[in-house]
Amino acid sequence: MIVNAKFIADLVKGEIKGDPEKPVTGVCGLKDATDDQLSFLGSKKFIEQAAASKAGTMIVSADTENEAAASGRTLIVCKNVDFAFTQASMVFAVPAPKPVIGVHPRAVVDPSAKLGNNVSIGPCAVIEPGAEIGDNTVISAGCYIGHDAKIGSDTLLYPNVTVMYRCIVGNKDIIHSGVVIGADGFGFVPGPNGLVKVPQTGIVRIDDDVEIGANTTIDRARFDKTWVKSNVKIDDQVMIAHNVTVGESSILVGQCGIAGSAALGRGVILGAKAGINGHITLGDGTKVAGTSSVAKSTPPGAVALGTPAENQRDYMTRWTLPSRVERLSQKIAALQAQLDELQKK
Amino acid sequence: MIVNAKFIADLVKGEIKGDPEKPVTGVCGLKDATDDQLSFLGSKKFIEQAAASKAGTMIVSADTENEAAASGRTLIVCKNVDFAFTQASMVFAVPAPKPVIGVHPRAVVDPSAKLGNNVSIGPCAVIEPGAEIGDNTVISAGCYIGHDAKIGSDTLLYPNVTVMYRCIVGNKDIIHSGVVIGADGFGFVPGPNGLVKVPQTGIVRIDDDVEIGANTTIDRARFDKTWVKSNVKIDDQVMIAHNVTVGESSILVGQCGIAGSAALGRGVILGAKAGINGHITLGDGTKVAGTSSVAKSTPPGAVALGTPAENQRDYMTRWTLPSRVERLSQKIAALQAQLDELQKK
Amino acid sequence: MIVNAKFIADLVKGEIKGDPEKPVTGVCGLKDATDDQLSFLGSKKFIEQAAASKAGTMIVSADTENEAAASGRTLIVCKNVDFAFTQASMVFAVPAPKPVIGVHPRAVVDPSAKLGNNVSIGPCAVIEPGAEIGDNTVISAGCYIGHDAKIGSDTLLYPNVTVMYRCIVGNKDIIHSGVVIGADGFGFVPGPNGLVKVPQTGIVRIDDDVEIGANTTIDRARFDKTWVKSNVKIDDQVMIAHNVTVGESSILVGQCGIAGSAALGRGVILGAKAGINGHITLGDGTKVAGTSSVAKSTPPGAVALGTPAENQRDYMTRWTLPSRVERLSQKIAALQAQLDELQKK
Predict the structure, then answer these.
(1) pLDDT value at position C145?
(2) Most buried in the list A21, A22, A319, C195, measured by CB within 10 Å?
């Protein structure tokens, strides 16, 4: 596949600076790109890399085009560089393999399960009694869909996903391998003879347009539901405990965890390895830095850093403490000198 | 299913304050409960939520009943609120689906495996030569039971659990999906030509009444055994390395990890995301706060916070350091003023 | 199996101090070893345990042999104690079960897949069109090998491993259960109508002699490849994001995570639960302490501690701050007393 720079510029609605006929055979990151490849400068952080890059064509923004210019390079200037590069990379992408429509003879589908039109059920997938699978949905090899679970339409389950009984998965969701939806929440109460398991009688409900990364676990509720609302994007190895609510369009980065009954508002962002205490509320748009752990509820738009998390000002006060203590130490030495001098007199 | 408040009070041995005939159709948390639902106030933290709740019936303790009172609400006063609510919620719970007794025709069971009475072996489960499955035990769809592994009686393996060769799982255990028991411990020694794998020739032994959360991994020992003793409760995505011992009735909360050869006493509690160094001992009843990492052995009853973990006093000294430094800074300014004043004279 | 101390000494090329005929029936750790067992003292940390041990035979180094001596105990003195003990433990190890050569009748192998000589394909394994499996490679029960994926020779996949389409796994690799290779990287860009998924069109490439622990996830690249180079050893529940490069012979300990496009040099060591920010470079031989999170690139040989990580000196300055502030506080009190005294005069 060979196109020219103009083809890309038209596609992303960008403006060409340089040779519109410059051939482009593929996309690549700044470091490894060659003269016949397209790269992009999406952030000022990478200006040095861009200057040194051998990419023959580069998507840039208006405020970086000068820094990205290089002899013989063609620039494509546009507003949303990341989005434009994503569009351009699709031109060269080998498409993912297409699922085979129908029920594989080695799948195990209970006769009482309801399958929509154009579903694909892979080999060794198991679909239990009463489960429902929507139109155009793909249940890949080795997946398990429990009793009376409901999977919506146009949803893609990669191989070896587990959805337990009665849980509800929405439409246009993407669920990666190793995900477990609907294992029991973690609840025990002291009884007369030691710990007693608290029955987890609720479900997990996943709304539409949600993506869930590999080996993430979302536990079923103690009662009612654990709820991941629409458009939420979840990375790998995230843990969502029972009765948690995750608001629309929230982003949960890898290895973060949310303890029981926490409620996240809309558009919350949890950085990698972040932790959220149980029974607290994060206001809409709260941003939690990677590795930070939030112990108290936050207002809308909060930024939380550190463990336990603080606001940015308090966090910076804490972080810069060593240099402040050094300054105080010098002041004390100066005071001591001044005092000793005075005393001599 | 409709019962009345008196039915619940009799069940949990509580005392009714209000209308014993108040109908109850289900259970719910304080926030979302309606007039025909039962809720509970298990901690003083939630008194405000309880006051605002629309729950028509509420289980409370003697010291919270005044705060939980509301016009038209029926209270059920009892000692162990959490345990009572758990009992009550079982009245309304739809039971989990019952496993089908017998070996599914699409399971793969080696003829040399020994199956107890009333076992349930799901479709696509694989049971290798020499494995033993106890009476009434459920091996769900897609599980793998390795060569000569032994699973006790009345134990429940949810779908897609992996138990490797020779490992031993006890009686009345519950193991959630995605758990891996008996993968190799992580051991390499520098040899003449680079890293050499240290063979992991031991096993994992899980005693009775243990619960293990989704996608948790417990590695086989370098030699002898990695040992999870009876009544231990393990949450999701916990990692237990080789040759670790976890004492009876310990509680390991989500995403915590225990490094090789660490020994936890009885009744140890590890908070979410806590980490325990290798080759150390945690005394009976040690409590490790969430996200804390313990680098040194602890005495019985210790409380450990922070990374590396300290006792509560040292941790609080460290945590409150910014305000202490602020006070010292003010003292220094006052000293300077006093000294300057004196010098003028 | 019974051997004598001389047999072990010859095997590990060590020197006997004591009875060469001392019988040895197995290996064990210092704490639990008995008189007929072989143990080892690999680090001065365990000298007390060694002195108290009942092991009848012990592998030690020249500089610990005096401390390890005990009445009636036979010592085997050698240079690399860990490596020697590993060799010795193999004498007694029950070998792991041998995989059955051939394709199990309950495996699902597409006719277009290419299988090498002496492969073992377990029951319920699924091998998609165009996939290639090298000679002597084991694909255990329940594994999934995606379209056009390539698995090298002499490689061992334990049960329930997922390798997605087009990914490449090398020779002599060991991949434990629950591992997911090639799930989509986590990428979304703001589009005109909310978050737009960035297609992840690249692959994962794993080179030779790599070991990957249970439930680890390695995501496919946005474009080009996520690359784990030869001899890398990865523990359980590690997360490697898209477009990451891990240099030769690096060691990634349990539950650590590496964010997108980070590049690790050769021989990097990440401690347990460590985190590495996206788009940074760790120089060859960088050591990151457990639970530490690195936010900036490091030079070769760097040691990084804390969150965000610092060098050892800055980290220790920060860690010892409470005692420094205590000393400053005492100095201030002394200054105040001196000043008050002076003022009185």
Answers:
(1) 98
(2) A22
Fold: same for B3-92 and B102-313:
no
Catalytic residues of C, which ones? 242
With pLDDT > 70 as the criterion, what percentage of chain A qualifies?
100
DSSP annotation of A257 reads: E
Q: Do the Cβ atoms of A317 and B321 come within 8 Å?
A: no
Neighbour tally for C315: CB within 10 Å: 17
For A215, A276, A293, B303, the CA distances from B309, given in Å and listed in that order, are: 29, 20, 16, 9
- Per-domain residue ranges of chain B: 3-92, 102-313, 316-345
Neighbours, chain C (3 or more CB pairs < 8 A) = A, B
Give per-residue pLDDT as tens, A33-90. 999 999 999 888 899 999 999 999 999 999 998 888 888 899 999 999 989 998 998 8
Give the other-Cβ count within 10 Å of A194's Cβ. 12
How many angstroms separate the CA atoms of B180 and C336, rounded?
63
Lookup: tokens for A42: 């999406």
Class of domain C102-313: mainly beta
pLDDT per residue over A233-282, tens digit each?
999 999 999 999 999 999 999 999 999 999 999 999 999 999 999 999 99
Q: Which residue has the tokens 């207002």?
A: A299
Q: What angle do CA C83, C89, C94 make, to 5 degrees?
A: 140
Amino acid present at B19: D
The fold adopted by the segment(s) B3-92 is 3.40.1390
Distance CA B186, CA B197 (A): 8
Integer Cα distance of A141 and A144 in angstroms: 9
Q: pLDDT band for position B94 (50/70/90)?
A: confident
- In the predicted structure, residue A182 carries a pLDDT above the cut 90: yes
Q: Name the minimum distance, in Å, from the CA of A192 to any CA of chain C.
A: 35
| Nearest alpha carbon to residue B123 among A114, A123, A150 | A123
Angle between helices C312-319 and C321-344 (to 10 degrees): 50
| C79 in contact with A, Cβ within 8 Å | no
Which of these, B107, A327, A14, lies nearest to C141 by C-alpha position? B107
Q: Among C144, C224, C275, whose Cβ lies nearest the Cβ of A28?
A: C224
- Provide the ipTM: 0.94
Beta-carbon separation of B275 and C253 below 8 A: no
Q: Which amino acid is at C308?
A: P
Q: Which of C219, C235, C239, C320 to mutate against chain A (most A CBs within 10 Å)?
A: C239
pLDDT of amino acid A231: 96
For A259, which of B27, B272, B332 is closest by C-beta distance?
A: B272
- Mean pLDDT score of chain A: 95
Distance CA B270, CA B257 (A): 9
